[in-house]
Amino acid sequence: MIDQLLKTPFTELTGVRHPVVQTGMGWVSGPRLVSGTANAGGLGILASATMTFEELEKAIVEVKSRTDQPFGVNLRADAADAPARCDLLIEHGVKVASFALAPKQDQITKLKEHGIVVMPSIGAAKHAVKVASWGADAVMIQGGEGGGHTGPVPTTLLLPTVLDAVDIPVIAAGGFFDGRGLAAALSYGAAGIGMGTRFLLTRDSAVPDAVKQLYLERDLTGTVVTAKVDGMPHRMLRTELVEELEETSAIRRLGPTMRRTLEFKRISGMSWVGLAKDGREMRKAQGRTLAQMALAANTPMMLKSGLVDGDTGAGVLASGQVVGVIDDLPTCEELIDRIVVRAVDELRRSSAYVV
Fold first, then answer.
1. How confident is the model over 241-294, as pLDDT tens digits?
2. Of 137, 180, 223, 203, nearest to 343 (Cα)?
3. 3-class DSSP string for 199-210
4. Looking at the 3D structure of the chain, how many domains does it have?
5. What are the two backbone dihedrals, phi and then psi, of residue 121, each rounded to the nearest 5 degrees?
6. Which end of the chain is more exposed for a tag (fewer CB within 10 A), N or C?
């Protein structure tokens, strides 16, 4: 384990040793991966969207038993129980609250009043300006190269527009996997990098080994962005199931959609009223149609089938394009150490060009 070699506004804000963030991936970012990242000096983020309230509290307690380092929790700002989950973070002294969608202004204020760093994920400069005006401490941007829900703008264009728009720390995600990427992001003006797929493909990740091997076999053309899973652009591995979904009509997808909705209701413990409230908030916050909200019920269960159960015939595998250049499964400590060391070497090397 290496000592701190880089100091950025993000490391000072959060108290982590290295400006590297493990993003909150549903079904993937559990206590083992988060604590492994935290102990290695990065910021690990628990993914709570696929957890019940009770499961989230249990996961937070487990992370705290595994590490004394700062870590974060990713929250759905539009979830019906979001206020209670914010209270849970306050109760347990979680260092960072990240959000996949912009949190409400009162949520930001309450979390900050209790010393929690608020870091929403955003996909456009105007969204960064909005949350910054509400008091967000930092933002994470994800370019189109990233996995999961993503936009069309590449990181190399999204990052400078956001940096020009706000004066809070910006974490760059989408296409990062090594020290060269960290050095490049810092040179742009970012305060660190976020990585999802690269952390999924570590020995600390609980994803089944057979599934990890499927990822390692992919090249740079091995992912596709589709809206057929949940109605929104979603980058994932090209599999037979995904190709089939791309060719299947909405009518033929209706039956499986309803079955997965029922299964998600069962494992989440949510009532029909709770699901309806979540749907209304999703429609209000994201502008989704009723059809898109019905498709959205697919996402948790299809990701669980692939990433937890290892059933790639029934599930999907979210992935960034970066999967095409990853060929090993290090520990979180090995990964972060080599990224930081390489970044420092690259920054020193490039400084030789200055006259």
1. 888 887 765 555 455 555 545 554 555 455 555 555 555 554 454 455 555 555
2. 180
3. HHCCCCCCCCHH
4. 2
5. -95, 135
6. C
Pair (178, 122) in one structural domain = yes
135 domain-assigned = yes
The C-alpha atoms of residue 89 and residue 333 are separated, in whole angstroms, by 26
* Residue 212, in any domain of the structure: no
The beta-strand segments (E) located in the chain are: 20-22, 43-47, 72-75, 96-99, 117-122, 139-142, 148-149, 170-173, 192-195, 223-226, 234-237
φ, ψ at 5 (rounded to 5°) = -115, -15
Once rounded to an integer, what is the mean pLDDT over residues 311-336? Answer: 94
Among candidates 141, 145, 163, which has minimal Cα distance to 154?
A: 145
214 CB-near residues (< 8 Å, 6+ apart): 237, 239, 312, 317
SS3 content of the chain, % helix, strand, coil (to 5): 50, 15, 40
User: What whole-number distance in Å separates Cα of residue 272 and Cα of residue 92?
Assistant: 29
What does the alpha-carbon distance between residue 334 and residue 202 come to, in Å, rounded to a whole number? 9
**Are 176 and 302 part of one and the same domain?**
no
Q: Are residues 183 and 257 in the same domain?
A: no
With H, G, I as helix, E, B as strand and everything else as coil, classify residue 72. strand
Query: What Rg do the C-alpha atoms of the chain give, in angstroms?
Result: 19
Q: What is the CATH number of the domain that holds 113?
A: 3.20.20.70
Per the CB < 8 A criterion, the answer to whether 28 and 307 are in contact is yes
Which tens digits make up the pLDDT trace of 77-133? Answer: 989 899 999 999 999 999 999 998 889 999 999 999 999 999 999 999 999 999 999
Q: How many whole angstroms from its chain centre is CA 265?
A: 23
